Amino acid sequence: MQSRYVTIHAHPEGTPERELFALESAELPALAEGEVRVRNTWLSVDPYMRGRMSGVATYIEPFTLGAPLEGAAIGEIIESRAEAFPTGTKVRHMGGWRDVAQLPAERVERLPAFDVPEQAYLGVLGMPGMTAWAGLNRIAEMKEGDNVLVSGAAGAVGSLAVQLAKAKGGTVVGIAGTQDKLDWLEAHGVKAVSYKGKDTAQLTAALNEACPEGFDVYYENVGGTCLEAALNTLRVGARIAVCGMISRYNAEAPSAGPGNLAMILIRRARMEGFIVFDHWAHYPEFLEEVGPQVAAGRLDYEETVVEGLEQTPGAFLQLFEGGNRGKMLVRL
């Protein structure tokens, strides 16, 4: 059987060009004992993948040039030599960016049994949802009545973070760019602030207007001006959960750090970065809390769906242009 896959043959500098990505194919070997073959139905593209394209190991190994790129995917087992995963089983795994994946059975997991569309396990009930939950609860230790600020607030992670924060009863403010994203936030009871065309002073003023009392929690997805403005609006004892800094992912040279980092001292704040995989042992706890809310329609989530394996690189690049609302997905 042939597997078609997306790969790269060079490390990008700055924002990757579409031409960097190649669609190739390879003959799959016969299944070994303990392996499964999965026909993928949904692929995830995520900002963290940009770091894996740089050829440098960080908290995760870089992609191998010429090999299939990797990412979360959902599919159906079409051939199996693993008793626990018979043909027809729906699974989640990390063999994305391809149409057919062949993996050891220990690298796939059955989909949970909530009454939700299967692709939800790549978004609101997958890594992005777990990231939002872990950042707020395990890193920022969000409490009832906390005022919460979220940057990238209409993305896959931010859109769940603002809703989880709203349930705690405090003022929630979301930073976003496009008008449709701002409208989505306002429709969900979140005070929306645009970062477009604003320097640090202007964004600080807009945040102060939205929440004059200041913020107990800042959920950081963006960095840059958003981080500087957020530091200016912290309350004493604030906690900052650093999930990502997408504004820097395609930078070709080191960028200056926040010029007002002293606000962490002045506000006696705590700022902590985290990687969701370090907290994955708590995924069942997340599912128990959030899964029923999603199944019952009490938590809203957005998806931006692109069709076809060939469009996967374009879907990935849209993440850096604000081209997604909620989770960016590729349907095969």
Task: Describe the protein in words.
The chain has 332 residues and is α/β, with parallel strands linked by helices. The chain has two domains: 152 residues, Quinone Oxidoreductase, Chain A, domain 1, CATH 3.90.180.10; 149 residues, NAD(P)-binding Rossmann-like Domain (Rossmann fold, 3-Layer(aba) Sandwich), CATH 3.40.50.720. Helices cover 24% and strands 26% of the residues. The strands form three sheets. Strands 3, 4, 5, 6, 7, 14 and 15 form a seven-stranded mixed sheet that branches. Strands 10-9-8-11-12-13 form a six-stranded parallel sheet, sandwiched between helices. A two-stranded antiparallel sheet has the order 1-2. Strand 8, helix 3 and strand 9 form a beta-alpha-beta unit. Helix 2 packs across helix 3 and helix 5 packs across helix 6. The longest helix has 13 residues. The chain is globular.
Quick recap of the structure?
With 332 residues, the chain is of the alpha/beta class.
Provide a count of the helices. Answer: 9
What is the subunit organization of this protein? single chain
The span between the termini is 17 Å
**Average pLDDT, all residues:** 95
Write the element-wise H/E pattern from the N-terminal end onward. EEEHEEEEHEHEHEHEHEHEHEHE
How much of the residues is beta strand, in percent?
A: 25-35%
Using the coordinates shown, work out and report the CATH topology of the largest domain.
Quinone Oxidoreductase, Chain A, domain 1
Residues in helix, %:
10-25%
Q: Please identify which CATH superfamily of the largest domain we are dealing with.
A: Medium-chain alcohol dehydrogenases, catalytic domain
Question: How many structural domains are formed by the residues?
Answer: 2
**Quick one: overall form?**
globular
Main sheet characteristics: 7 strands, mixed
Low-pLDDT parts are none
